[in-house]
Amino acid sequence: MENINKCSSRHEILEVFKRQIGFNSSRKFSHRISASEALVKRIDLAGKLTGHEGCVNTIEFNCYGDHLVSGSDDRRVMFWNVATRSLVLSYASGHVDNIFQARIMPFTDDHTIVTSAADGQVRLGQVAEDGHVQTKKLGQHHGRVHKLAVEPGSPHIFYSCGEDGLVQHVC
Question: β-pairing, 145-150 with 67-72?
């Protein structure tokens, strides 16, 4: 029985690897692996990213999966190297209340980050080559802004939704 589990586990790890390098489609991968008992049993804590001083409300990978962006009640945005589990960049978002969403805009070489927060603001962070970050307000809702959705394939278009019942299109 143990040999069957080891063999099954190796097969599932190979499937994960194939998915990561693009050999398996998302749909095919989810049908083959999503309910794999052997794979689920192998899941364990790999590490922790420490740096925020408040509740972390959002994390998102960049398009390559090698970096994460996070946003917190401390109103800071942090950019992390996944492999080394190290902080690459931290900046004050300009929000005056808890950050709920942080998204890296595609095709910007990870230099454009959009955030939304409990202050109703939607803000843009532009990371310069020297690591300095310029922020500006792009939009305002009446009430908290809970979600951002980036238009696939576009470095300039996204949507925000807030407690005011509005979906705002930003470009």
Answer: unpaired
Domain that holds residue 29: 2-42
Cβ contacts of 53 within 8 Å, gap of 6 or more:
72, 74, 76
In a domain, 13, yes or no: yes
Residue 35 covered by a domain: yes
Q: What tens digit of pLDDT does each residue of 55-103 get?
A: 999 999 998 889 999 999 999 999 999 989 999 999 999 999 999 999 9
Distance between CA 120 and CA 79 in Å, rounded? Answer: 23
- Identify whether residues 33 and 67 lie together within a single domain: no
Q: What is the pTM of this model?
A: 0.76
Q: Which of 127, 120, 114 is nearest to 165 (CA)?
A: 120
- Residue 103 tokens read as 């998204």
Whole-angstrom Cα distance, residue 43 to residue 50?
21
How far is C-alpha 19 from the geometric centre of its chain's CA atoms?
A: 19
Number of domains in the chain: 2
